[in-house]
Design goal:
The protein contains seven helices and no strands. It has about 220 residues and is an all-alpha fold. Helix 1 runs antiparallel to helix 7, helix 2 packs across helix 7 and helix 3 runs antiparallel to helix 4.
Length: about 220
Protein backbone atom coordinates (compact mmCIF):
# COMPACT_ATOMS: atom_id res chain seq x y z
CA UNK A 1 0.00 0.00 0.00
CA UNK A 2 0.94 3.66 -0.13
CA UNK A 3 3.78 4.53 2.22
CA UNK A 4 4.85 7.79 3.83
CA UNK A 5 2.53 10.69 4.50
CA UNK A 6 0.10 9.56 1.79
CA UNK A 7 -0.37 6.24 3.53
CA UNK A 8 -0.92 7.94 6.86
CA UNK A 9 -3.45 10.33 5.34
CA UNK A 10 -5.62 7.55 3.85
CA UNK A 11 -8.07 7.12 6.74
CA UNK A 12 -8.43 10.88 7.21
CA UNK A 13 -9.12 11.38 3.52
CA UNK A 14 -11.80 8.70 3.57
CA UNK A 15 -13.39 10.15 6.70
CA UNK A 16 -13.44 13.59 5.05
CA UNK A 17 -14.88 12.20 1.82
CA UNK A 18 -17.60 10.24 3.60
CA UNK A 19 -18.52 13.20 5.80
CA UNK A 20 -18.77 15.52 2.79
CA UNK A 21 -20.82 12.96 0.84
CA UNK A 22 -23.23 12.66 3.77
CA UNK A 23 -23.56 16.45 3.83
CA UNK A 24 -24.15 16.36 0.08
CA UNK A 25 -26.86 13.71 0.33
CA UNK A 26 -28.54 15.62 3.16
CA UNK A 27 -28.49 18.75 1.02
CA UNK A 28 -29.92 16.88 -1.97
CA UNK A 29 -32.77 15.53 0.15
CA UNK A 30 -33.64 18.99 1.48
CA UNK A 31 -32.94 21.06 -1.63
CA UNK A 32 -35.95 22.74 -3.28
CA UNK A 33 -37.69 20.74 -6.00
CA UNK A 34 -37.57 22.26 -9.47
CA UNK A 35 -41.03 23.24 -10.69
CA UNK A 36 -41.03 21.66 -14.16
CA UNK A 37 -38.93 18.48 -13.83
CA UNK A 38 -39.71 17.76 -10.20
CA UNK A 39 -37.57 15.33 -8.21
CA UNK A 40 -35.76 14.08 -11.32
CA UNK A 41 -33.96 17.43 -11.49
CA UNK A 42 -31.99 16.42 -8.39
CA UNK A 43 -29.95 14.09 -10.58
CA UNK A 44 -27.98 17.24 -11.39
CA UNK A 45 -26.37 16.97 -7.94
CA UNK A 46 -24.85 13.64 -9.00
CA UNK A 47 -24.40 14.26 -12.72
CA UNK A 48 -22.48 17.54 -12.63
CA UNK A 49 -20.17 16.63 -9.71
CA UNK A 50 -19.35 13.31 -11.40
CA UNK A 51 -18.48 15.13 -14.63
CA UNK A 52 -16.34 17.60 -12.68
CA UNK A 53 -14.48 14.76 -10.97
CA UNK A 54 -14.01 12.96 -14.31
CA UNK A 55 -12.50 16.01 -16.00
CA UNK A 56 -10.31 16.58 -12.94
CA UNK A 57 -9.09 12.98 -13.02
CA UNK A 58 -8.17 13.18 -16.70
CA UNK A 59 -6.43 16.50 -16.12
CA UNK A 60 -4.33 14.89 -13.38
CA UNK A 61 -3.47 12.08 -15.81
CA UNK A 62 -2.47 14.72 -18.37
CA UNK A 63 -0.22 16.59 -15.92
CA UNK A 64 1.33 13.42 -14.45
CA UNK A 65 2.05 12.14 -17.95
CA UNK A 66 3.83 15.36 -18.90
CA UNK A 67 5.87 15.31 -15.70
CA UNK A 68 6.79 11.68 -16.38
CA UNK A 69 8.06 12.50 -19.86
CA UNK A 70 9.92 15.66 -18.77
CA UNK A 71 11.38 14.54 -15.45
CA UNK A 72 13.36 11.55 -16.65
CA UNK A 73 10.51 9.04 -16.55
CA UNK A 74 9.92 8.74 -12.83
CA UNK A 75 7.86 5.67 -12.04
CA UNK A 76 5.65 7.42 -9.48
CA UNK A 77 4.20 9.78 -12.10
CA UNK A 78 3.16 6.88 -14.29
CA UNK A 79 1.46 5.37 -11.26
CA UNK A 80 -0.41 8.61 -10.59
CA UNK A 81 -1.43 8.89 -14.25
CA UNK A 82 -2.86 5.39 -14.61
CA UNK A 83 -4.55 5.49 -11.19
CA UNK A 84 -6.23 8.81 -11.89
CA UNK A 85 -7.28 7.72 -15.36
CA UNK A 86 -8.98 4.60 -14.01
CA UNK A 87 -10.95 6.65 -11.47
CA UNK A 88 -11.86 9.11 -14.21
CA UNK A 89 -13.33 6.23 -16.21
CA UNK A 90 -15.56 5.29 -13.27
CA UNK A 91 -16.81 8.86 -12.82
CA UNK A 92 -17.40 9.10 -16.57
CA UNK A 93 -19.52 5.95 -16.42
CA UNK A 94 -21.63 7.57 -13.69
CA UNK A 95 -22.09 10.59 -15.96
CA UNK A 96 -23.15 8.42 -18.89
CA UNK A 97 -25.68 6.57 -16.72
CA UNK A 98 -27.12 9.58 -14.87
CA UNK A 99 -27.27 11.72 -18.03
CA UNK A 100 -29.93 9.67 -19.85
CA UNK A 101 -32.03 9.48 -16.67
CA UNK A 102 -32.07 13.25 -16.57
CA UNK A 103 -32.49 13.59 -20.36
CA UNK A 104 -35.60 11.39 -20.34
CA UNK A 105 -37.38 13.93 -18.18
CA UNK A 106 -35.83 17.11 -19.60
CA UNK A 107 -35.81 16.27 -23.34
CA UNK A 108 -38.23 13.32 -23.50
CA UNK A 109 -35.52 11.03 -24.85
CA UNK A 110 -32.94 8.73 -23.31
CA UNK A 111 -30.20 9.74 -25.71
CA UNK A 112 -29.58 12.24 -28.46
CA UNK A 113 -26.44 12.70 -30.53
CA UNK A 114 -25.91 16.31 -29.52
CA UNK A 115 -22.37 17.74 -29.16
CA UNK A 116 -21.83 17.35 -25.40
CA UNK A 117 -23.23 13.83 -25.12
CA UNK A 118 -21.46 12.61 -28.25
CA UNK A 119 -18.08 14.14 -27.40
CA UNK A 120 -18.25 12.85 -23.82
CA UNK A 121 -19.01 9.31 -25.01
CA UNK A 122 -16.13 9.48 -27.49
CA UNK A 123 -13.83 10.72 -24.72
CA UNK A 124 -14.84 7.78 -22.51
CA UNK A 125 -14.20 5.29 -25.32
CA UNK A 126 -10.80 6.82 -26.11
CA UNK A 127 -9.69 6.66 -22.49
CA UNK A 128 -10.85 3.07 -22.44
CA UNK A 129 -8.37 2.54 -25.25
CA UNK A 130 -5.68 3.90 -22.93
CA UNK A 131 -5.97 0.77 -20.79
CA UNK A 132 -6.35 -1.54 -23.78
CA UNK A 133 -3.10 -0.28 -25.32
CA UNK A 134 -1.33 -0.14 -21.95
CA UNK A 135 -2.08 -3.81 -21.33
CA UNK A 136 -1.05 -4.88 -24.83
CA UNK A 137 2.42 -3.28 -25.10
CA UNK A 138 5.59 -4.74 -23.62
CA UNK A 139 6.47 -3.84 -20.01
CA UNK A 140 9.58 -2.01 -21.19
CA UNK A 141 7.64 0.54 -23.21
CA UNK A 142 4.37 0.50 -21.28
CA UNK A 143 5.03 3.65 -19.25
CA UNK A 144 6.31 5.65 -22.22
CA UNK A 145 3.36 4.75 -24.45
CA UNK A 146 0.89 5.42 -21.63
CA UNK A 147 2.42 8.83 -20.94
CA UNK A 148 2.10 9.87 -24.59
CA UNK A 149 -1.51 8.69 -24.60
CA UNK A 150 -2.21 10.53 -21.35
CA UNK A 151 -1.13 13.76 -23.02
CA UNK A 152 -2.75 13.25 -26.42
CA UNK A 153 -6.10 11.96 -25.15
CA UNK A 154 -6.64 15.03 -23.00
CA UNK A 155 -7.55 16.82 -26.23
CA UNK A 156 -10.80 14.83 -26.20
CA UNK A 157 -11.55 16.09 -22.68
CA UNK A 158 -11.02 19.68 -23.80
CA UNK A 159 -13.29 19.16 -26.81
CA UNK A 160 -15.98 17.62 -24.62
CA UNK A 161 -15.79 20.39 -22.02
CA UNK A 162 -15.97 23.20 -24.60
CA UNK A 163 -18.44 21.51 -26.95
CA UNK A 164 -21.37 23.57 -25.65
CA UNK A 165 -19.60 26.79 -26.59
CA UNK A 166 -18.09 25.54 -29.85
CA UNK A 167 -21.13 24.00 -31.54
CA UNK A 168 -24.68 25.11 -31.95
CA UNK A 169 -27.52 22.72 -31.35
CA UNK A 170 -26.32 21.50 -27.95
CA UNK A 171 -29.17 20.71 -25.60
CA UNK A 172 -26.87 21.38 -22.64
CA UNK A 173 -27.31 25.00 -21.52
CA UNK A 174 -24.26 27.19 -21.01
CA UNK A 175 -25.67 28.32 -17.67
CA UNK A 176 -28.52 27.19 -15.42
CA UNK A 177 -30.78 29.36 -13.31
CA UNK A 178 -30.83 28.02 -9.76
CA UNK A 179 -32.01 29.24 -6.39
CA UNK A 180 -29.31 29.99 -3.81
CA UNK A 181 -30.22 26.79 -1.96
CA UNK A 182 -29.85 24.73 -5.15
CA UNK A 183 -26.54 26.36 -6.01
CA UNK A 184 -25.21 25.75 -2.51
CA UNK A 185 -26.22 22.08 -2.68
CA UNK A 186 -24.53 21.71 -6.06
CA UNK A 187 -21.34 23.36 -4.78
CA UNK A 188 -21.21 21.08 -1.73
CA UNK A 189 -21.81 18.05 -3.95
CA UNK A 190 -18.97 19.03 -6.29
CA UNK A 191 -16.51 19.38 -3.41
CA UNK A 192 -17.77 16.11 -1.91
CA UNK A 193 -17.14 14.18 -5.12
CA UNK A 194 -13.73 15.81 -5.50
CA UNK A 195 -12.87 14.76 -1.94
CA UNK A 196 -13.98 11.23 -2.82
CA UNK A 197 -11.79 11.38 -5.92
CA UNK A 198 -8.71 12.35 -3.86
CA UNK A 199 -9.34 9.54 -1.35
CA UNK A 200 -9.88 7.02 -4.15
CA UNK A 201 -6.73 8.22 -5.94
CA UNK A 202 -4.56 7.65 -2.88
CA UNK A 203 -6.13 4.21 -2.42
CA UNK A 204 -5.70 3.28 -6.08
CA UNK A 205 -2.14 4.58 -6.07
CA UNK A 206 -1.29 2.22 -3.23
CA UNK A 207 -2.79 -0.70 -5.14
CA UNK A 208 -0.83 0.21 -8.26
CA UNK A 209 2.46 0.26 -6.34
CA UNK A 210 1.65 -3.09 -4.75
CA UNK A 211 0.79 -4.58 -8.14
CA UNK A 212 4.08 -3.41 -9.64
CA UNK A 213 6.02 -4.83 -6.69
CA UNK A 214 4.38 -8.22 -7.14
CA UNK A 215 5.09 -8.19 -10.88
CA UNK A 216 8.76 -7.39 -10.26
CA UNK A 217 9.09 -10.19 -7.72
CA UNK A 218 7.49 -12.63 -10.14
CA UNK A 219 10.04 -11.93 -12.88
Amino acid sequence: MTSGWLGKSRPYLWWLAVAMLLCSFWGIAHAPTEAQMGTVQKIIYIHVPSATAAYTAFFVTFVASIVYLVSGKGRRWDQVAVSSCEIGMVFSAVVLVSGPLWARSAWNTWWTWEPRLTSFLIMWILYGGYFLIRSSVSPGSRRDVSAVLGVVLFVSAIVSYLSVAWWRGSLHPRSVTMTPEMRMTLTISIFAWLAFYVAALVERLGLERTRERIEEQAR
